[in-house]
Amino acid sequence: MTGVVDYGMGNRRSVVKALERVGGEPRLSDDPAALRRAAGLVVPGVGAFPEAMRRLRRAGLDELVRERALAGVPVLGLCLGMQLLFERSSEHEGADGLGLLPGEVVRLAAGRLKLPHIGWNEVAFTRRSPLVAGLGDKAAFYHVHTYVPAGEEVALGHGNYGVRFVSLVERDNVFGAQCHPEKSSHEGLTLLKNFVGMT
Q1: 3-class DSSP state of 85
Q2: Nearest to 115, CA basis, from 92, 82, 90, 147
Q3: Burial bucket for residue 90 (CB in 10 Å: 0-12, 13-18, 19+)
Q4: pLDDT in tens, 86-114
Q5: Helix 49-58 and helix 61-70, axial crossing angle in degrees, nearest 10
Q6: Which residues, 6+ apart, have CB-to-CB distance to 45 below 8 Å?
Q7: Can you give the pLDDT at residue 133?
Q8: Which end of the chain has the smaller Cβ count within 10 Å, N or C?
Q9: How far is it, in rounded angstroms, from Cα 91 to Cα 147?
Q10: Which residues of 153-186 are buried (b: 16+ CB within 10 A; e: fewer)?
Q11: Residue range 156-193, pLDDT digits in tens
């Protein structure tokens, strides 16, 4: 069973349907006890980082995600869910994140291009990973975002929108996708299927 962390923000139902489509057994829940039994966790999300962290803390889900990640359970953050894995974000008033990945999430320096960045973007993989197995050296994914991780330490793949930006991340059993795999056709479903295979 793959637990989908429900803290009341974002694209939860579409993530559940996509996981079902690739053969997973997702369970959408805000119950730490139920999520603790999952073989893997997906943290979805759309919206603002500070509000997302407030909701996670209020439900005790921040500690649950940290606990399971530190126990070696595979964790995948999607879009805002990926950003929450980092130490902090400068969005709005700023906020501390889950601290599972090093660094800060900052506004995308897209120059004169419009933000948020919305649309398909090719992502080039910087190293091999079970998360992107079968996708070759690059693949196109659908993005909707204004903020990105600032550092390269955990980068797995990069897109380009006025500037090169980190789109996929990985450290040990913690993974993140700035894109929306559930909206990214065959390539996105392949990424989700790979994650389910790890669990």
Answers
A1: coil
A2: 147
A3: middle
A4: 999 999 999 999 999 999 999 999 999 99
A5: 90
A6: 7, 9, 10, 11, 52, 77, 78, 79, 80, 81, 83, 84
A7: 98
A8: N
A9: 8
A10: ebbbbbbebeeebbbbbbeebbbbbbbbbbbbee
A11: 999 999 999 999 999 999 999 999 999 999 999 999 99
Instruction: Count H helices and E strands in the chain, helices first.
Output: 6, 13
- Catalytic positions are 79, 180, 182
CATH architecture of 2-198: 3-Layer(aba) Sandwich (3.40)
Type of residue numbered 103: G
pLDDT score at 151: 87
Please answer whether residues 15 and 182 qualify as being in contact, where contact means their C-beta atoms are separated by less than 8 angstroms.
yes
Q: What are phi and psi of 114, to 5 degrees?
A: -70, 140
User: What are the φ and ψ backbone dihedral angles of 15, each rounded to 5 degrees?
Assistant: -65, -45
The pLDDT confidence band at residue 10, using thresholds 50, 70 and 90, is: confident
Are the C-beta atoms of residues 69 and 173 closer than 8 Å to each other? yes
Q: Rounded CA gap, 185 and 69, in Å?
A: 28
Buried/exposed code over 120-132 (b: 16+ C-beta within 10 A; e: otherwise): ebebebeeebebb
Which token pair is 112?
């004169």
